[in-house]
Amino acid sequence: MLDSTEPSNMASAMPLNSTSDEKMNMSVDNKINIEVVYGLPHKQKILAISVAENSTVEQAIIESGMLALFKEIDLTENKVGIWNRAVKLSAALEDLDRIEIYRPLIADPKEVRKRRAEKAIIEGRADKTTGGRVNPLSVNTKSS
Question: How many domains are contained in the chain?
Answer without folding.
Answer: 1
